[in-house]
Amino acid sequence: MPKRCGWVKMSNPLYVAYHDEEWGRPLHDDQALFELLCMETYQAGLSWETVLNKRQAFRESFHGYHLQAVAEMSDEELETLLDNPAIIRNRAKIFATRANAQAFLQVQAAFGSFDAYLWSFVGFKTIDNEITNYKEAPAKTELSETMSKALKKQGFKFVGPVCVYSFLEAAGLINDHEKDCDFNSHKNTV
């Protein structure tokens, strides 16, 4: 059996697949970055497992995270999502998804892509924290504080420094895989 980071819930195949196939891999596709950012914002105050279990329903509710479609969702469309038990029915988070799509599009227009904007914060190279035990990883850093402020200035919602740090880990800007994790082979691959 492969060695995985200690935080992986082996009882949930979605959790295992997320760790093995997505988490910490340098991500450069804007639509995938938008979905991941949305997922991190949904997690605020909840478990990551809850978000993963509702991921497909969120995709269906938010037009596959197609940026323009989400940015153009009406208040009425968003309100109807509050009746969908398959997603996290938090009004502020649902409305933040539209606001974040709009902010994302503005960043793309200003910087050419969200990818270019995001990766500029780390000099276009993954930061490798050489984690021995996942409990050593910080919840936030000076980088996530700086990026949180920058994203808020751009109009993003639910992007506090803890959320941003999790996003940076998930999108591979920060490598917090444990050193002996068998899925830590993508270090500094941008």
TrEMBL record:
SUPFAM superfamilies in the cross-refs: DNA-glycosylase
Domain of life: Bacteria
Key word Methyltransferase present: no
UniProt entry keywords in alphabetical sequence: Glycosidase, Hydrolase, Metal-binding, Zinc
Repeat among keywords: no
GO terms, molecular function: DNA-3-methyladenine glycosylase activity; metal ion binding
InterPro entries in the cross-refs: Adenine_glyco (IPR005019), DNA-3mA_glycosylase (IPR052891), DNA_glycosylase (IPR011257)
EC number: 3.2.2.20
Binding site for Zn(2+): 5, 19, 177, 181
One of the protein's GO biological processes: base-excision repair
PANTHER family: DNA-3-METHYLADENINE GLYCOSYLASE 1, DNA-3-METHYLADENINE GLYCOSYLASE I
Record protein name field: DNA-3-methyladenine glycosylase 1
Species for this entry: Streptococcus parasanguinis
Gene (UniProt): tag
